[in-house]
Amino acid sequence: MFKTMMGIFGAGAASLILLTSGSMTQTSGTVTAEAATVTQSVYADTYTPTANVPADGTYTVFINKIERDTDASHYELTVDPINWYTGEAANVEFNKENPDSGIDGAPDGYYITNEDTKTYHYAVAANPKVLMQIYDHTGQWQDIDTNWDEPLSIQKLNAIFQKPDLLDPTSFPYHITVKDGQVTKIVQQFIP
């Protein structure tokens, strides 16, 4: 499944992936690759069953929506967990899922898998750290530019998600950090 026009291919497993000693191990099967960036995905087992709270950790997700919670005191993210691969790990996953592609590895050096598009709702801490790489600053194409790790408030991020006219923020992956059941950090992943 082709998710966006930005080189994001969705097809792989939504299981937990861990990077260990230079190889990648997938809990629902085995895939081996040389050391590269692989992030942990979120899946149902990371929730405390009775409290429906995500486990502490850093996860890579697509943020589908940002909205105020029912009493309008906090924000809530609707996220779609993904697996994010770079380097040789990206090439291994890409070639495994696209053996007849006619190219040797992942386009642009990264690969995203997203077989399970189930979404989860995450509460956002009162003042999370938000870092963006690229977004629509003014509503003018000429003002869209990359500013690495530009800090924003959660209110500004929400405003960006409410007006995706020129550059849709939902088409980028985000690395979110969860602590004590709340998102404390949101970092947009730049993709070419």
Provide an overview of this structure.
The chain has helices at residues 87-97, 154-162, and strands spanning 17-20, 23-26, 47-48, 53-54, 57-68, 75-81, 83-86, 110-113, 120-134, 146-152, 173-179, 182-188. The chain is mainly beta. The strands form four sheets. A five-stranded mixed barrel has the order 5-6-9-12-11. A two-stranded antiparallel ribbon has the order 1-2. It is globular, with a radius of gyration of 17 Å. It starts with 16 loop residues before the first strand and ends with a strand.
Describe how the helices and strands are arranged.
Elements: E1 17-20, E2 23-26, E3 47-48, E4 53-54, E5 57-68, E6 75-81, E7 83-86, H1 87-97, E8 110-113, E9 120-134, E10 146-152, H2 154-162, E11 173-179, E12 182-188
Parallel strand pairs: 9-12
Antiparallel strand pairs: 1-2, 3-4, 5-6, 5-11, 6-9, 7-8, 9-10, 11-12
Features:
single chain, globular, 5-stranded mixed barrel, disordered N terminus, mainly beta, 192 residues, two-stranded antiparallel ribbon, 2 helices
Query: End-to-end distance, in Å?
Result: 19 Å
Global structural class: mainly beta
What number is the mean pLDDT? Answer: 78
Q: Which overall shape is indicated by the principal axes computed on the Cα atoms?
A: globular
The number of distinct helices, counting runs of at least 4 residues, comes to 2
**Number of DSSP strand runs:** 12
Low-confidence stretches: 1-38, 40-50
Estimated radius of gyration: 17 Å
SSE topology string? EEEEEEEHEEEHEE
Q: Which strand order do you get reading across the main beta sheet?
A: 5-6-9-12-11
Quote the beta fraction: 35-45%
Helix content: 10-25%
Biggest sheet record: 5 strands, mixed, barrel
